[in-house]
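--- STAGE predict ---
source: upstream dedup step, 1 unique chain passed
mode: sequence only
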Amino acid sequence: MFALALWDRETRTVTLARDRMGEKPLYYGWQGGVFLFGSELKALRAHPAFEGGIDRDALALYLRHNVVEFAWRLPLHMKIRNGQGKWLLRQVLYQYVPHSLIERPKMGFGVPLDRWLRGPLRDWAEDLLSHERLTREGFFHPAPIREKWAEHLSGRRN
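--- STAGE serialize ---
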């Protein structure tokens, strides 16, 4: 198993490579103008430039309608085999993710929703919880919702 990074001073380019038969993935991406890479996510998280926020563009690409349409058009034998669901997805994941991470019981994980709602999702949440929108839609009384939202933004409550 190997991984390496080669920096070319003349062209100012980096080439990343890993053993395709190896067990370690290769994570990489741009964060705050810094190119980060590593074989474990904790290596990226350790860098001061790392932000755990949501990349809305990446999320939009992930949720594109043609991905959903593609999944709906797949024949059933590509989705379920031998009583196991998500067959095709598993075949792709096996190439990049250790089997132990795929074939394990579901595990919960903490989502830093409070940080996201005070950070990258704040404008979106503010629009959803605006006094005008709540009044227009007429399902909820805006005052108590706006009060709780203000408490959340101040850090007094989550």
